[in-house]
Design goal:
- The protein contains eleven helices and 13 strands.
- It is α/β, with parallel strands linked by helices.
- The protein folds into two domains: 236 residues, Type I PLP-dependent aspartate aminotransferase-like (Major domain) (Aspartate Aminotransferase, domain 2, 3-Layer(aba) Sandwich); 121 residues, Aspartate Aminotransferase, domain 1.
- The chain has a seven-stranded mixed beta sheet with strand order 1-9-8-5-4-2-3, sandwiched between helices.
- Helix 9 crosses helix 11.
- The longest helix is centred in the N-terminal third of the chain and has 22 residues.
- It starts with 6 loop residues before the first helix and ends with a helix.
- The structure holds pyridoxal-5'-phosphate.
- The site of pyridoxal-5'-phosphate (PLP) has 14 residues, from helix 3 and helix 4.
Length: 372
C-alpha cells in the first residue's frame, strides 16, 4: 500500500538527530525564542539567499505579518489568485484589506500576469502571487508591474521551499517571501511553523516585533502585535531537517521525472514543465477527464490521491461575500474540476511511482473497457 505522504519514512532518517536536538531544548527549558530559533533563522535565510529570516508559528501568520509590514490595512486592496489554499486569502482579510482576484494561467497554474493591470486601482497596496504546487509564478512580469507603481510584492512560497530560477530561490524575488512548515510541506516541522524571508531590514524588524506582541524590548510595546512566535522545539527540529532539504527537493524532482516519462502521451496529462525555473514539486498533479471517477477507481486499487484544490476560494461559501460568482475565473474553475494529485515525497521509490502511473493509466481506461 502506497501512502499519499510518508512522514515516517523521512523520520526514519532524521529521527535520531531530531530527538537529540529536541531533548536538548527540553533539558534547557528555553522553550520560547531560545537560541535554536535565531540559529534556524540564519540558516533559512542563507538557504533562501536573503539577508534575513524571521520564524513564526504558521505560514498563515507569515502572510499576515508580511502584509502588515508592507503597510497593508483597511481600505487597501491586495491582488492574488483564487486557486490557492484558503490561508492566502484569509491573511489578506485579517489585515482589513480586500482580496482582489485574477485568474491563473492555464499552463503555469500561477497568476495570469496579463490580467493584473486591469484590476489595479489607486488602493492596490500589494501583489501576492502563489507558487502553486512548488512552481514559481512569473516573478519578472509581476515585479515589473509592481515596481512601476510602487506596489509591494509578497510571495506565498508555502509550497515552494527550494524552487528556483537561475540559482535564485523562491521567497527571494519579491519584497517578502512567506513559508509554511506545516508537517506535509517540503520542509515540515513536528507541528506548526512558518517563516518570512526578506532583504529589507525594516520589514524584518517590524515582523520580528509583530510576532512577539510588538515588543522592541521586554514590555516595550511599540506596535500592536501578536503571539506568533515559533516554538524553540520546532526550530531545533527544522534546523535538522533543513540540512536535508536540497537533497529532498532533488529526490522529488526525480519522482516527478519518473511520472512525466511514464504518463507522457497517456490519458492523464502530466503538469507542463516549469520553463526556465526549477519546480519544487510539493504537489504533482495531473489533469484528467472524469476526475472523480478516476480518483474513485484508484482508491479501489489502493492508490491514494488528493485534489489541490477542489474549489477555488471565490466559490467557497465563507468567501462568497467577496462578490465573485461561478464563471468569473474559468481557468481556476476548470482546473479545480480536472486536477488530481498523485503521491509524491522524497522517499517514494521508482517502483512505487511506476505502480501509481500504471494504476492511473488503467483507471482512465476502465470506462472504455466496460463500454467494449
Ligand atoms: C500551507 C499553505 C499556507 C498556510 O500555511 P500554514 O502553515 O498551514 O498556516 C498558505 N498558503 C499556501 C499556498 C499553503 O499551501
Amino acid at each position: 500500500m502506497i501512502p499519499f505522504l510518508d512522514l515516517q519514512a523521512q523520520y526514519a532518517v532524521v529521527g535520531p538527530e531530531i530527538e537529540a536536538a529536541v531533548l536538548a531544548v527540553l533539558r534547557r527549558g528555553d522553550y520560547i525564542l531560545g537560541k535554536p530559533v535565531a540559529e534556524f533563522e540564519q540558516r533559512f535565510a542563507a538557504f533562501c539567499g536573503t539577508k534575513d529570516a524571521v520564524a513564526v508559528n504558521t505560514g498563515t501568520s507569515a502572510l499576515h505579518l508580511a502584509l502588515l509590514a508592507a503597510g497593508v490595512g483597511p481600505g487597501d486592496e491586495v491582488v492574488t489568485v483564487p486557486m490557492t489554499f484558503v490561508a492566502t486569502v484569509a491573511a489578506i482579510l485579517y489585515t482589513g484589506a480586500t482580496p482582489v482576484f485574477v485568474d491563473i494561467d492555464r499552463d503555469t497554474l500561477t497568476m495570469d500576469t496579463h490580467a493584473i493591470e486591469a484590476v489595479l486601482t489607486p488602493r492596490t497596496k500589494a501583489i501576492l502571487p502563489v507558487h502553486l504546487h512548488g512552481r514559481l509564478a512569473d516573478m519578472d512580469a509581476i515585479l515589473k508591474i509592481a515596481r512601476a507603481r510602487g506596489i509591494a510584492v509578497i510571495e506565498d512560497a508555502a509550497q515552494a521551499h527550494g524552487a528556483s530560477r537561475d540559482g535564485r530561490l523562491a521567497g527571494s524575488f519579491g519584497d517578502i517571501g512567506c513559508f509554511s512548515f506545516y508537517p506535509g510541506k517540503n520542509l515540515g516541522a513536528c507541528g506548526e511553523g512558518g517563516a518570512i524571508v526578506t532583504d529589507n531590514p525594516d520589514y524584518a524588524t517590524a515582523i520580528r516585533q509583530l510576532r512577539d506582541w510588538g515588543q522592541a524590548g521586554k514590555y516595550n510595546h511599540v506596535r500592536r502585535g501578536y503571539n506568533y512566535r515559533l516554538d524553540t522545539i520546532q526550530a531545533a527540529a527544522l534546523t535538522v531537517k533543513l540540512a536535508h532539504l536540497a537533497a529532498w527537493t532533488e529526490a522529488r524532482r526525480k519522482v516527478a521525472a519518473t511520472y512525466d516519462a511514464l504518463l507522457a502521451g497517456g490519458p492523464a496529462a502530466p503538469p507542463l514543465p516549469a520553463r526556465g525555473s526549477e519546480h519544487a514539486y510539493h504537489v504533482y498533479a495531473v489533469r484528467v477527464a472524469e476526475r472523480d471517477r478516476v480518483q474513485a477507481e484508484l482508491k479501489e486499487q489502493g492508490i491514494p490521491t488528493l485534489i489541490h484544490y477542489p474549489k477555488p476560494v471565490h466559490l467557497q461559501p465563507a468567501y462568497a461575500d467577496l462578490g465573485y460568482g461561478a464563471g468569473r475565473f474559468p481557468v481556476s474553475e476548470s482546473y479545480a474540476a480536472e486536477t488530481l494529485s498523485l503521491p509524491i515525497y522524497p522517499e517514494l521509490t521508482e517502483a512505487q511511482a511506476g505502480e501509481v502511473a500504471a494504476a492511473l493509466r488503467q483507471a482512465c481506461e476502465v470506462r472504455d473497457v466496460r463500454v467494449a
